[in-house]
Amino acid sequence: MRERDGGEVRATATGPGRALIAVYGIFALSATARGGVQIAERFGEAPLAYSLSALAGIVYILATIGLAGTGPGFRRLAWAAVVFELIGVLTVGTFTVFVPSDFPQDTVWSYYGIGYAFIPLVLPFVGLWWLRRTGRAR
């Protein structure tokens, strides 16, 4: 695959990228299911928190698709989703630490992903590292 400048890049779905895509896929399923159940059953309890869980699920779906796809469009999608994910987990994590009353129920990104062993905090850093590493010219 070639980038715009003509340099060769590696597909993101090779080597360790396959494991990364699997983790993103698991988070896509779990966050989307969690958000969907929360919205369907208890939306009135914490609409912001439950909406953010659903948003996290959508972001993980887009990141999975972007990382699994080939071509510059998929790479751009992966970059956008993973950067958005990083901003989301840092923002929501910070708000849940300093303004917990605004989040009566947890989201996937609450307290930087504590309910998921902090994987939501680590995952975007790994994703960005992998996108950068595979985007370098060989």
Question: Could you characterize what this model shows?
Answer:
This is Integral membrane protein. Keywords: Membrane, Transmembrane, Transmembrane helix. The chain crosses the membrane at residues 20-37, 49-70, 77-99, 111-131. The protein is mainly α. Helices cover 67% and strands 0% of the residues. The chain has 4 helices and no strands. The protein has helices at residues 16-42, 47-68, 72-98, 119-135. Helix 1 (16-42) packs antiparallel against helix 2, helix 2 packs antiparallel against helix 3 (72-98) and helix 3 packs antiparallel against helix 4 (119-135). 33% of the residues are buried. The mean pLDDT is 90.
Sum up the structure in keywords:
138 residues; mainly alpha; 0% strand; elongated
Order of helices and strands: HHHH
How confident is the prediction overall: mean pLDDT? 90
Could you tell me how far the N terminus lies from the C terminus, measured between alpha carbons in angstroms? Answer: 11 Å
Our count of helices gives 4
Total E-strand runs: 0
Based on helices, strands and strand pairing, what is the structural class? mainly alpha
**Computed CA radius of gyration, to the nearest angstrom:** 16 Å
Transmembrane segments: 20-37, 49-70, 77-99, 111-131
Keywords: Membrane, Transmembrane, Transmembrane helix
Protein name: Integral membrane protein
Organism: Pseudonocardia nematodicida
Task: Offer a quick outline of the entry.
By secondary structure, this protein is an all-alpha fold. It is 67% helix and 0% strand.
